[in-house]
Structure of beta-N-acetylhexosaminidase:
Amino acid sequence: MGSLLDKVGVNVNLAPVADTVPTSIGEANQPIGRHGRQYGSDPVAVGPAVQDLVRGMHAGGVATTLKHFPGLGRVTGNTDFTAEGTDDSVATRSDPYLGPFRQGIQAGSELVMMSSARYPKIDADNQAVFSRTMITDVLRGQLGFGGVVITDDLNAKALSGVPVGERATRFVAAGGDILLTGRAADAGPMTQALLARSSTDPAFAKQVDAAVRRVVGLKVARGLAPCS
């Protein structure tokens, strides 16, 4: 698969899915289980499969993205279409379901995609994509990830209560790097919000700079910046 993607010019794969869907939820899990996207119902089995996909993609010359951190396996609602049923009331910072993400990081995955769901036992106030606890403390600190953090679609229904520009600034402030949106018209407002806050908030401007450096670093590593 990695070789085929490389041949058609795809250098980053938004995979693998590192979410674990327990058998007790199964197809009732709308984003993953319903479509059979998971590698298994036990994180002990999912982890090695995630590592295999990462290593296989790398062998083909393609970067990988672990998703959807810290896991969408225990929700029922799909954050793309609803905010209902998108709370994982079980996950903690010592959750075994973090195992496949840790193993994917150890295998060298260059990117991690954040979930737009809520994990109240880890951060009671913010969805994962806007959570400094989740991105900076757990993902970067506890799991040791130093690569690029990307959002899931910021046009998701679960995020509709947050103004478009604020979606961008809250993600970067939490420690994220790349904004992904399925609605092209949102790119302008997001960019303007980042520029506006950077011009008045030096600490935030440093976070934007750090995000840019991580993204450029990934491009250099993938041979996409010949001037380097």
